[in-house]
Amino acid sequence: MKFGSSFCTLNVGGRRFSCSAELMKRLPLSRLSRLHRCVSESELLELCDDYDRDRNEFFFDRHSEAFSFIMLYVQHGKLRFVPHMCELSFYNEMLYWGLESSDLQPCCQRRLDDRMSDCFVHFFPEEEPRGPREPQSRWLERMRRTFEEPTSSLAAQILASVSVLFVVISMVMLCASTLPDWKTTETLDQHRIIEAVCIGWFTAECIVRFLVSRDKCEFVRRPLNIIDLLAITPYYISVTVTILTGENSQLQRAGVTLRVLRIMRIFWVIKLARHFMGLQTLGLTLRRCYREMVMLLVFICVAMAIFSALAQLLEHGLDLETGNQDYASIPAACWWVIISMTTVGYGDMYPVTVAGRVLGGLCVVSGIVLLALPITFIYHSFVQCYHELKVRSARCTHSLSADFMN
Question: pTM above the 0.70 mark?
């Protein structure tokens, strides 16, 4: 947008804010930066409520005091809640202007998390405005939602049910193929036919989803799509090797790589994450809590290094001839430390000296404390992710009901 002058006016809720065009271009607020890139007045009106060309003034029917705090964040780099204003309302204003909860100060982030957990709500950023779609674009979008969103329509639900059925059948056949009674020639032939049908369905589904996707590069980078490829590719590699070398060749009989490729079909079970909210919640929680997971891993590794060295010294190092041979090395003692810290205790190795038993008690107590520290953060994130996905599912169900009634 070519502004009439080097300065413009933002009228937010009746309160005016002067802003230079260059500052609008560099603002970290996506709505204002998009406003600067507009080339027509119709595009401007998609981002603001009104526009006065003569005064170069943009009108926004939003909370003026909240916007003043957001402008202070732009100037000083610190964003806090407006006093006496609901945290959820302020967060809604942040999303409107293009900010995220990570822009808040840590104390305000905790207040927002607690508020959202108490109210079981979640806000979603507004989607980018799109112009009128052509019939072909609408058809592609409908196909994409049918394959990507199982609750978006009745056809999507039927397709998801069929896909789940194929996943269950393939898992049952994979497990049954390892039974001795299923290794006869007739049974193997039936298993191959069923496996080929399941792979054909998964391949066709993956190809269609790739063709109707909006961004092909983004489609390839998605974790679930990578898992689909990892689950499908081993079958075609095995078939290719069988055709090239023969079914009873020495490579087929002794090929460890081929057996590993066949067992990789267990990744099919992860395809259920597309259709079950529980698995989606687990994946989203792990993605958002990777820092806590790394912290938990560091705690375990540090404790393992300390207790394994002390255990090796007390049980074996002080008396090399009659010492406990299960603790002959620090790596061997690491196994005892990990099963003790997690309170599993297989009983395959245990300390026999008094000092070793005291160390074992400290190891168990330390494991309970260290493992419990990050669990609270992971639990709150899990609850938030669950309710977020639940809200999305409810919106899709509401849209499905409206389409059915219409």
Answer: no
